[in-house]
Amino acid sequence: MTARQSVANSLAAARQAAHRLASQSAAAEQAASTAAVEKAASQAQSIETARQLSLAQQAEQESAQSVQVGSADLKSTDSVERQTSSERVTSGASISGSEIDSEKGSAVDSIVTSGQPGTENTNPASESDTRTDAELYDQGLAKSRQTLGERFNAFLANFRSVDEDFFDDLEETLIGADVGFNTAVQITDELRDEVKLKNAKKQQDVENVIVEKLVNLYDQAGASENTAINMAKSGPTVIFFVGVNGVGKTTTVGKMANMYKKQGKKVLLAAADTFRAGAIEQLQVWGKRDGVPVVALPERSDPAAVVFDAVQRAKQENFDILMVDTAGRLQNKVNLMNELSKMKRVLTREIPEAPHEVLLVLDATTGQNALNQAKTFGEITAVTGIVLTKLDGTAKGGIVLAIRNEMHLPVKFVGLGEQVNDLRPFDANEFVYGLFKGLIKE
Question: Is residue 346 part of a domain?
Fold first, then answer.
């Protein structure tokens, strides 16, 4: 090998070594950069966790200040809640159940009171304790009444004569009032016959016939319905709550538990919505506020196991009412149907007549969407009644008639405000007057 070749080879080797060194240096720099990013992310997460913990503690303190529960009740609830259930057997599987103490503080306390979608403000107010049902219906239906009045006033302002154009416009007005297409067509057809029968030609006469017909339709539907909860003749009454996430289902369970406890009933809650984040904790917060125990298992547990534990406890400790909060995942109707069916099988093995009620919770602010949800859940399970929430926050009160007329389901409770006492048993007479009094000529 010549000296020139030797030098060339040495230079090539040096270049390769330099290249390897540069690559190693770049890799080291990248690793250091990645480590720095991960460290920063970890620090940020730690800061956020600390912030959330602080908020949770603050929310718990605020909740403790707002809730006044007798010390005797708290001790009783705490004692009962700390019992551990033994191994349960359901659907051929061995399930080890445990109950989570409903007295635990939770960051969900702030969720329940924050006004986020699917929740309602639950701080009790003295105003709700003193208002009559008539006053609550009057205030809760104010938006629906105003919108309905405006629509009919605009419709009647264009009145010229009773002809087909008149009835076409009336049908559109009713559809706009969220009574549903089929119901609007039915009402229009009946009004067409009624107007002819009474020979109504003047605007005031026609207006009186329309209002009278609408009121009668609501009254007739209400007269044939059983809006009361079907109570068990003996043993615990079991009520299932179904509905999509965000309609106020868990809040409804909490408000109804509060109502029945005030009536002297012994109430037990079951947190069978084990999939929605925060659902178990939200129900436990309600249990804490209402002073009623909550049976729960860790998240992602089998909902049927929760129901099994709850029904065993309800029977053993002589509870009057067991309320079961269920999942609302409609993305896969088959899975939800199977889940509800399994819970019912577990339940009926212990209490053959149960569930005594399956209440579908609907958000009134969604209008026709609520009707579609009612139809969907009617395909999934045997719904026995409707709870219509957030009526006070919508102008779509007409959806009540659409649901009753098309689904043939009674409305059993309505949410007329944000306070804990604003969930009221449905009263057809109060509803009709509260909705139509702006149209009724005294």
Answer: yes
Task: Please tell me whether residues 369 and 409 are part of one structural domain.
Answer: yes
Among 396, 386, 397, which Cα is nearest to 433's?
397
| 365-374 confidence digits (pLDDT tens) | 888 888 888 8
pLDDT > 90 in the chain, percent: 30
In a domain, 189, yes or no: yes
pLDDT at 291: 96
**Number of domains comprising the chain:** 2
Beta bridge partners of 241: 325, 359
Length of the chain, in residues: 442
421 and 333 in a common domain: yes
pLDDT of res. 439: 65
Q: Are 295 and 273 in contact (CB under 8 A)?
A: no
Between CA 107 and CA 121 the distance in angstroms is 15
Higher pLDDT, 430 or 60: 430
How far, in Å, CA of 236 to CA of 87, rounded? 22
Domain stops at, among 157, 192, 221 = 221
What's the pLDDT at 19?
A: 54
* Whether residue 421 sits in one domain with residue 281: yes
Asked whether the beta carbons of 401 and 222 are under 8 A apart, the reply is no
Long-range contacts, 214-218 (Cβ 8 Å, 24+) = 214/187, 214/436, 214/439, 215/432, 215/436, 215/440, 217/187, 217/190, 217/401, 217/405, 218/400, 218/401, 218/428, 218/431, 218/432, 218/435, 218/436
Peptide bond into 298 cis (omega under 30): no
Question: Which domain covers residue 202, as residue numbers?
Answer: 133-221
Task: Tell me the average pLDDT of the chain.
Answer: 74
d(CA 377, CA 55): 37
Tokens representing residue 359 in the block: 């209440």
Rounded to the nearest 10°, the torsion over CA 19, 23, 28, 34 is 160
Q: What is the DSSP letter of 397?
A: T
In a domain, 63, yes or no: no
Regarding whether 401 and 306 lie in a shared domain, the answer is: yes
Kindly tell me if the per-residue pLDDT of 100 is higher than 90.
no
Evaluate whether residue 67 is within a structural domain: no
Highest mean pLDDT among 23-32, 47-56, 120-129, 130-139: 130-139
